[in-house]
Please model this.
Amino acid sequence: MHGSNLYEGQKLALKYFTVAIVLFGAQLLFGLFAAIQFMYPNFLFGVLDFSINRMVHINALVVWLLYAMIGAVYWLLPDEAGREVVGIKLGNLAFYVLTAAVAVVVLVYLFIQIGPGKESTIWFITEGREYIEAPRWADIGIVVVVLIFLYNVYATVMSGRRTGILAVLMADLIALAGLYLAGMFYTDNIAVDQYWWWWVVHLWVEATWEVYVAAVGGYILIKTLNANRKVVEMWLWIEVAMMFGSGILGLGHHYFWIGTPEYWWEIGALFSALEPVPLVGLFVHVLYDWGKETGKGNKITNVPAFSWLTVETFGNFLGAGVWGFMHTLPQINLYTHGTQWPAAHGHLAFFGAYVAIMIAAVYLAIQGKAGLKELKMTKAGWWAITLITVGVLLMTVSLTIAAYVQTMVERGMYGATWEGFFAAQNNEWFWQGMCWRLVTGLMVIVGYIFLVYDLLTCTKKQPVQESEAEVAAAAA
Amino acid sequence: MCIEPCTDVVCSFWSRLNQGPMTLTITLHMLIILPMIWIYFDEKKKMEQGDIPEE
Amino acid sequence: MGKPSVWSSNRFWRRSATWVTGVSAVLLILLTFDSMSQMQMGTAQDIKNKVDKRIPSPVVINYKIDYQLSRKRGHEVPIIGGMDANGNSKYEEKEKFFGRDNYSEKEARELIHLGKLTIQAKNCMDCHTLLGNGAYYAPDLTKAWLDPNWNTLAPAYGGKEYAMATFLQNPPAMAMHERKMPNLGITKKEAKAVVAYLKFMSAIDTNGFPRNFGKIKGAVDAWK
Model:
């Protein structure tokens, strides 16, 4: 068995990756339903309303990314620390508890959907707060599972090798976990509610997750290109300085219009305007290392993982950086806030910044599981990366066109009323944008099918080569 | 002098620093970046004295 | 090997990263303390004393609410209980809400408590935006109370709060567009509370968001 020379932690990682890819499929399916409803509002009306599809769409996204993120840490942790994960039994238990909890939450979302206006609904059905709708009992469960995960990371690193990548991850994961607590209380004051809600949402996706990506990206560079660790870690610290330096106070760009003091305009605008800088850095770094290492004659040992990492840096810069910057200044955001602009930005940013790198991490694990020295791109793998990447890019363009119309018509011409909203929604340009969004969404789904097929089969379709396990067996 | 009395609902320390579009944020940026100059020279001194352990 | 440079030293960047992260976090915490003190919900006493609060007391449901340009602030602000000569809220003009304009602080707080719980329990935010945050399938509700559309419907229902509450209890029956709101099983009591919440929310000072709300009616025929 090839898999037998894996660490137990890496076997646990494979379980996390499996659930992640399944939930990725759920995300796309419910996104498709929601996209259809934009064009045909009677589709599934009263059965699975838009609010439900949209909630499952974004929750599946967040949860599968978290699964993949935990998986990637369990994958690299024993490898970097040079020892088995300490509390592996506890880690396995936590995986099953979390997965059972996620299943229950999704079933409640789909079959109970909403509740009466009581505290019990918040505890057991839905919290009704975008991205963190999970009911309170699940919040507490998530905290427990994350504590187990953190314990495993800390205990393993403390008794193993402490690399720069692990040092960054340790600091980052504790912040990531701690921030979740900011979204776990109820208040009648919607301004205060949204203030703390952004602590979770922004300080995750625009600070701690970005730093996580920089750390894991560094690991993938070392693994696929044999890049110089010292240089990778230097870049990583520069990235941390720039990401947290711009991202923490960049939080202010969500505090323009929610009942917060006016000084957030200035802080939010100019700190968040710097957020693209580290993303350019990440992009340049990967391209630079690519040229340098292949120039030295180093081969890329995992072409699919490296290709997805390249898509990540490009998509992160374009989606999070450029599309984010486009509407981050308050003078512009006054008219774009609450339109399709954030939808356009969100699709490319989540895909570029997080989805692509997590797929890269899965490819790395697939290679490790099969014990292959080299993993080449297969035909199916090529179709997967092309269809998904081009699909999401075109989807972003479609949504951006719709966003322009909405901003001009609803906000500019009509002053944001009910009448203005529907005048924009009925505009031909808006409608066409939504139409193309649906077409490009289908493209992504076809790409996803190729991806799943490739993940299951790519290691068997490699040109004949000696695997590490066979070399080891022959030597023995 | 072109210092405006603050126009916000409540005039706190931060809103008084908010004079026009740049003052507050430049102050905060400087507060964050300027001490890095000190870190730079401190590291340089240590490097020249050779008391940096090899990592 | 050339002379080692501080710029390529891992130690320098690690120390810088630690410093930058730490000081940003401290600044955010200080700013949060200041913002939180400004964002506490006001009291009935504040309204009596004519003190502007970013998030006023829920007893604003007893008053007429408007949204007008403030010359001092440079954008629109909520005007509660009529506007004085300087463009500030007078906190005088009352307006009946479900037949009453004397809700006590306790009653009003209970109403908006039920309203907020209902808004979360029915997942409003996954179709609508509130304060501009949420999903983009249905209109923004930040100033929904002031939407001219409800004024046109109001007479037939004996006031816009009645029209809104009737709509919420069975939206498909009053559908105003092909993309209609589903029936979410909102009770009469919950509907009243949600409408109270919408009225209260329209009185929150959102720094002029949304711009020009309700000022332009059919001025430009962008439909075609």
